[in-house]
# Entry
Amino acid sequence: MYLCFHFLIPTIDLKHILRELPLPQVPGGSLLARDTTDPRAASRLKGSRPSSRELRIADVIILKNLNLADYELQIQALELMRSKRIYTNTNVFTAPKGFCIVFIQDIAGHSLNKHLNDHIFMSHYHNAEDGFANLETASQWIEDDRSSSSSVVRKSVVQNPRKSIGRAFSEADIQQIVCQIKDVTVTAEVKCYIQNIVTFLRVHRAVDGGITPRATIFFGSLVKCLAPLHGLRYVTPPLVAIAARKIYPHRIIPTIPERERSLQYGSDIEAVRAYLESVTPDSIVEEVLASVETPL
# Structure
């Protein structure tokens, strides 16, 4: 599972990801150190096997500001997501079965590679105005630097987050949820509702791309995953709406005024440009959800 949280380190040190230290230095800060120019290194890589415990990647990898990294580094991260392996000059590191990557980046930063972005399962945007409870303590007052002097300063109610927060789900709980997901029922009306949302997103005048087949597959998977978490054995329309808000905002590619479809029918480009200035991926999803008829 690959998650994306919009909130930004322009460099990624492989030594913080793998459990074997030290690792060979990678030219140019590359995430996957594969030396294809040295035949001896290639032969060692081909004959290596991830047999020891030290060659195992951590269960969860957090990549911060990968959108600011070089194109080659993002492609190597994509290879890790697809093959669940990472290569150095001498070894091959394999990912565990429950492998998860979390991308953390600034919403205003550069975009990820489109193929890497499409492989991210879901995304969540956290507004700074909602506060950061786990960073606050009982003896501190948190105030956003961008807020005005008249803003209300809120004091955290979390006494000691590091001690109070435990494991939300045990391994047995996760296995039980996985079994429950397989038994979730999706009626024909809800399936039609899901397909209508996908269709409306694809033909929306402000969408230039991003509604991919992989996104549709992830959309169907997430609606089934949400049901057990809400104590249900079937998918409801509100769960579909929640899934749409998590699957598509980071994928939608807004169109530019010159490519907007209504120009073919005589629309004024200045009016189109004014319309697109207020359009965001989130507003597109909300508009589609409001347009598609909800099943009873």
Q: What stands out?
A: The longest helix spans residues 213-229. Residues 5-30, 32-48, 50-54, 137-158 have pLDDT under 50 and may be disordered. DSSP finds ten helices and ten strands in the chain.
